[in-house]
Amino acid sequence: MTYHSALLSPMTWVRAFTHIFGHADWEHFISNMSYILLLGPMLEEKYTSKTLTGVIAITAFGTSLVNYVFFPSVALCGASGVVFAFILLSSFTGFKDGEIPITFILVAVFFIGQQIWDGITVQDNISNMAHIVGGMIGGALGYVLNKKATEAGYVDKTLLIRDFLDIKPMVSLFTRPRRFGKTLNMDMLRVFFEKIEEDTFIYFKDKQIWQCGDFYTRHQGQYPVIFLTFKDVKCLTWEETFQKIRILISLEFMRHNELENSSMLTTYEKEQYHRIAGDHANEIDCQMGLQLLSLFLHKHYGRECIIIIDEYDTPIQQGHHCNFYPEIVNFMRNFFSGGLKDNPHLAFGFLTGILRVAKESIFSGLNNLKTNSILDESYREYFGFTKEEVKAMLHYYGKEEKYEEICDWYDGYRFGNIEIFNPWSVINYITDKCFPKAFWQSTGSNEIIGEIIAAATPETTENLYKLLCGEKLTTYVDTSAIYPEIQNNPYSIYSFLLVAGYLKVAASYPQNDGNFMCDVAIPNKEIAYVYEKEVLNRTNQNNISIFINQAIFSGDTQKLQSLLEEFMLKSISSMDGVNEGFYHGMMLGLCAVLGNRYRVRSNRESGLGRFDIQLMPMVNGIPGSLFEFKHTKDPHADLTSIAFRGKNVVVKRA
Q1: Burial letters 623-647, b for 16+ CB under 10 A, else e
Q2: Which H/E stretch holds residue 121?
Q3: Over 80: is that where the pLDDT of 135 sits?
């Protein structure tokens, strides 16, 4: 309960907040608590406990301040102001895009209006004052909190539009790993450029692109747009693949139903439109789909159209794995050529994918294509989250202390010359209450990795294990690799791993042929987990490596010996184990899964000598290990004495 006591009295400030706990009687208390218990859980889920506590404190202090100034002779007690703050706050559930919800208006009129009327006609105006002030505070906080949530929930990438319009290449190809926002950015381009009945400028009026001036904003809503996404075209046969592509093309024709009765199209053109829109097209019709639809739209609107193809290489990758690569490549070559090569009805074209398929393979003769890969400076910050964007998200959710952890797990990608976070994993990390997991591993197919590992040479396999142990590798990166090269060129493995998101570029050195020499490494902890799972599963070493690492961790030498014997008898040929280097590489691979608890190093100088493998603990309380490998071809040799000689070498040199 508040009293009109001196401002210098500590109790005055204590009562300014604690008056909400006192009530005139049980009926007053039960009434307020019923509302709080009814609305509280919903508001707590939406705004978090911390925010809701702040709302209660602000309301308590606000009502006591008004009471102190305007009603100096009247005491104040009870949580009625908090109840009305909750009521008005809950009415903002439907808040979006800065608009005042109709529920808020209705609640304000009925509840606050009633309190104002009662304040005029009823003598108990102190109670009504608390209701009115609490409602005003709840309404104000509801608007501010939801406005802030709307702004925090959208990471603004609209300056991608500015950078594109500065150059205006005829056709742009963006290659990025999966789940890095390619589809979202293409959808943003569609909404910005597409001319439809809805006035879509409202989606951009408060975004960065709208601050760039008329040179850019005059393009908004001015073009007919063709939008196709092939991200779900993952069929096992060419027949099924073509059927799905035909349906997607048909649906895009149907989306432009303004053409159905267009006075600008001839009777024959309308027949063509109806045949494809009605899903009666043959393969030749579909190959000409982009060319025909762009022609129809150009005639109808009197303006060239924009063509957007999202995840263009998904069906190509599937064709490679399922043995219909020639069919899908031939289809795509004709499909893209008709729509993107020398098409007078094309304003601009956009494509996205994981790989840049070589021009001679798919984009034959398409000399107006501008490729933007992860090694290029252009558009580097628009796919994935930058450091500043991640810091802003963590600040909004009050999780600034998690920045170092989120960097360890999801940072490390390098696009151009800036570091980028995996946006899919960052969002899931925050949603999952900031508990780090490998969110990315189950978001797509990894058949390409399986084929790479299956075709890997022993040297390549050892390099993969070294990468797992945190080492860098200098390699040639071919940005024009095509799928069949996986089996023919073992060094293409690093190019595919890089563009697929399994490696990062630590440093790059451009070459005269347009490709790069790069220092590559595993980007972060998440990919280390994904990497070890994929690599070890593909090489059938996952289960045995876990048991072997348990034996190493516990110091159980007899168990370790038994497991190694069993593993070698089941997995290697008598021709494999002809030298010490083979066993060295084998053990390095089996120790790779310890990379999150140990720093695993191979063939490094230490003291006066060189160890074969070192397991240096990264946390306290677990043992470290040094491995020295010895090999003999003598079947009668005393292996125990050879082992002890190796041990003595390590001890003397340490």
Answers
A1: eebbbbbbeeeeeeeeeeeeeeeee
A2: helix 113-121
A3: no
Helix 125-152 crosses helix 387-396 at what angle (to 10 degrees)? 160
**CB proximity list for 370: less than 8 A, separation 6 or greater:** 167, 169, 170, 171, 172, 173
Q: What per-residue string of b and e applies to 351-363 under the rule 16 or more CB within 10 Å gives b?
A: bbbbbbbeeebbb
CA distance 370 to 172: 5
**Measured distance CA(587)–CA(640) in Å, rounded:** 19
Give pLDDT tens digits for 415-458: 988 999 999 999 999 988 899 988 887 666 656 666 666 666 77
Cβ-contact 411, 523 below 8 angstroms: yes
Structure tokens at 456: 């890997």
How confident is residue 150, by pLDDT bands cut at 50, 70 and 90?
low
Residue with tokens 């500590």: 10
pLDDT 10s digits, 538-557: 555 556 666 776 777 777 77
Q: What is the 3-state secondary structure (H, E, C) of 266-322?
A: CHHHHHHHHHHHCCCCCHHHHHCHHHHHHHHHHHHHCCCEEEEEECCCHHHHHHHHC
The pTM assigned to this predicted structure is 0.69
- Rounded-to-10 torsion of CA 341, 343, 345, 346: 20
Q: Which amino acid is it at 363? A: F
